[in-house]
Write a structure and sequence with these properties.
407 residues; alpha+beta; seven-stranded mixed β-sheet; two-stranded antiparallel ribbon; 18 helices; 13 strands; binds adenosine-5'-triphosphate; binds magnesium ion
Length: 407
Amino acid sequence: MNAKFDSFAIDIVKKLNKNSFEGWFVGGCIRDALTNIVAKDIDIVTNATPEQIRKIFKSSRIIGRRFKLVHIFKGNKIIEVATFRASSSETNSSKSVIKDGFGKILRDNIWGNINQDCLRRDFTINAIYFDPLRKKIFDIHNGIEDTNRKRIVSIGNPLKRFEEDPVRSLRAIRFSSKLNFKIAKDIKTAIYEKGYLLQGVSNARRFDEFNKLFMHGKSNANYQKLDSFDLLKYLVASADTKNPYSETLQRLALKNTDTRIRSSKSVTPGFLIAALLWPKLIAQSKSISSINTRKFFRNMDTLLREQQSLTAIPRRFHPYIKDIWSLQLKLETRISKQPYRTLSSPRFRAAYDLLLLRTKAVNRDKELSDWWTKFQTVNRKIKMSMLKELETSNAKNKKFGLLGELS
Ligand code: ATP
Ligand code: MG
């Protein structure tokens, strides 16, 4: 292993060693280093208990209930240090592992050694341990071999492992897209058979996974895979509205998100949710070939609530998503002062971006988006003449027929 690891993380291991504890780098950081990806963070495990870790590091805090961990701080950096845990199957009878009626682990705070810790990790590629001081590797599940062979292999029977924690099925899909690895056949079977258990996972945890799946540059690949495993319905409220238009718009929105991430532009789950749900919103709100605005505004709330029950969307995104949607109608209203008001909305940029995606998805009726492309850049005098020109054309008022998306 010749990857360069963060010196703060190495110092933590040094200090643990000095206090006679083990310290290992494990999980994503080792897996990513082996596949030449820059890991986003380093996870450390040790045989010290959270309380012992807390005592050794002045700037630290114990967090979590389901999984007790310690956060160690330095400046704006945080490193997570976990204590070795025993495998759930070995400790079934223990009262430190609390399961629900489906076998899902609700709480799991029984400490163990490295061998036991290894058994409770999800996939072999995530169970490679590295001691950065002694340069020692611990890999009893042959994770390195699976990394080299580019495959995702479960530790233990995936049917049982996915019962314990249904989120593992989403993780298998996410790692396969991120690393371009194949998912082992027994894992695929387990995803098909146990995927339904995702309905028992909290919406907060589902929102975390939503972000990991869709906000890290592989959203399109993940979306298509989730769809093929029929898991989309646990993450997006529009999974039941499938037509050529929705599929095109959603693919464009996802690809756009991935491209923005690749060029280090900002992305927000709010925008992606607004775009992914748009086809369902308009399908529900149409009356003959135009939008019934009363239905539209009512459905906005219902749809957002549906999405909320799947993935807990932070409050601040709710008005943002609704504004993007309602601005789609305002963008069509190009009379008197309305275009100026629309342009000065803080969400104009996001709304205009969605309009561009919609235009691209229908691949016709470019007049509206071209008009806005020009209107936002020209000076006041030209703006006025653009509006004047509209008065004599019949383009200005389409009564929310949208871009032919409803036909
Ligand atoms: P990344 O951080 O790139 O998303 P990661 O593998 O580091 O990937 P984390 O969620 O940070 O993922 O978890 C760190 C490690 O903890 C994993 O590599 C795995 O060994 C273990 N782990 C995390 N979540 C689970 C889970 N749901 N079931 C079993 N083991 C898990
Ligand atoms: Mg990690």
